[in-house]
Amino acid sequence: MSTKERKQREFAEREERFLAAAEACIREEGFLNLQMARIARLCDYATGTLYQHFSSKEDLLLALANRGNEAHVELFRQVQRWTAGSTRDRMFAIAVGDFDFAQRNPEHTKLLQYVHTRAVWESASPQRREQALTCTGPVGEIVTGIVREALEAGELEARGLSPMELACGPWSVCEGMQALSQVQGLFEALRIEDPERLRFRQVVNHLNGMGWQPLWDPADQAALEQLVSRIRTEVFTDL
Amino acid sequence: MSTKERKQREFAEREERFLAAAEACIREEGFLNLQMARIARLCDYATGTLYQHFSSKEDLLLALANRGNEAHVELFRQVQRWTAGSTRDRMFAIAVGDFDFAQRNPEHTKLLQYVHTRAVWESASPQRREQALTCTGPVGEIVTGIVREALEAGELEARGLSPMELACGPWSVCEGMQALSQVQGLFEALRIEDPERLRFRQVVNHLNGMGWQPLWDPADQAALEQLVSRIRTEVFTDL
DNA sequence: GGCGAATCGTGAATCAGATTCAAAAATTAA
DNA sequence: TTAATTTTTGAATCTGATTCACGATTCGCC
After folding, report:
1. Could you tell me if B119 lies within 8 Å of chain A, comparing CB atoms?
2. Residue A29's pLDDT band (boundaries 50, 70, 90)?
3. Is A198 on the interface with B (CB under 8 A)?
4. What confidence tens digit (pLDDT) does each residue in A65-76 have?
5. Are A90 and A123 part of one and the same domain?
């Protein structure tokens, strides 16, 4: 059935072109002004054709978020390859990568936040939602891998939590700080001057609270900055 | 100028009526199906009149979120009044209250998440955004109040962070877990069975990591459950 | 009270843009 | 080559937010 396969491939290629066009549109004018018809026109297809790929605009947005996730996962893989760091430093590196990724891809970050909204999430097709969950799989594996290694090395104690549950701690700290910093003006109103430093401090605190060895002195700002810049040069060399 | 005052009062009353009607609509059919015209009609006003109060639908949604914030703040006040608990227990009580509030007001929680989205936030009027920031003020005061008290009592060390920055730690944990649990199906996919227990564990870990005395044994599940239920009966008596 | 000016409320009309679907085109099968 | 099937098309539909010209109301002043 080579013809059927070819069809499938072509279909996938077209979808990719749609997504690339959508991304271009978003770069131009932000994702709030994204128009379905414009995407189709940009690719020389009719609007209706677009709807053979995406059940709705929200569905397309989620697909776009999923697509961008690839680059995100790549960061995590880079951490995975960084065997020079301790398990704790690697977990911390995840947080640094996550932060830098958000900084470098503000539109994608906004989009991600938007599609994770209950309102939007529920308007996407079930298939797309499943795809979204699936494509966070690798992230989960990498992170729990680090946790598992730490458990085996005795650098961390499970205390009744699964590796995934343990990983959720630092994850929610990152996610939470991210969410807060997305609210424009909040940190200013709260008189918080250096959100980046604060975020990393919170992660350090949290890792300490998990008892992840070796514990850090959270007050040692210099050491923290050194670790961050070390991670940025050693792990995320391409950025 | 009593007539001018009366005008203002009537205007405010009308706004309140609009918001109440909007809330009723949302209860009926979720905030995604909220229609401006319907709200106006429910209050026996023309659509245009609604727009004298709210510059756009997003603006109205943010106003609605701000309005609901009142009940949220009330929870925090209850914690403030609970002088029987240690500072640490009080901070923990904030987390419990926050969680329970989200459970009890799912529509409001979804709405809050939605309006905090960069996309929506930026479509609201600057005045409304400011109002939103202002009305989180009391929350900040209560929480930093607890932190300050802990600092004075020597139960917590600042280590170079301001009270607000310290408070951001537990806050972001709550916010992050909240954000993750809003993504329908995520915890199931991650094989996390008891998000509530996990959330409280994360908060305990985090408070430990901040060095907030007295430290807790995070593995002591029974003690944790006891604290949670104690808080629920002693602090949030009305729920 | 009466008058013009200013403000307010109205809701039909406008506008935007997502979504649909009947017809046309292309592809496949016989 | 023709008929059946699938795909594509894009104009038409539909929903619903937003606007604005108009009439009603109130205000300040005489």
Report:
1. yes
2. confident
3. yes
4. 999 999 999 999
5. yes
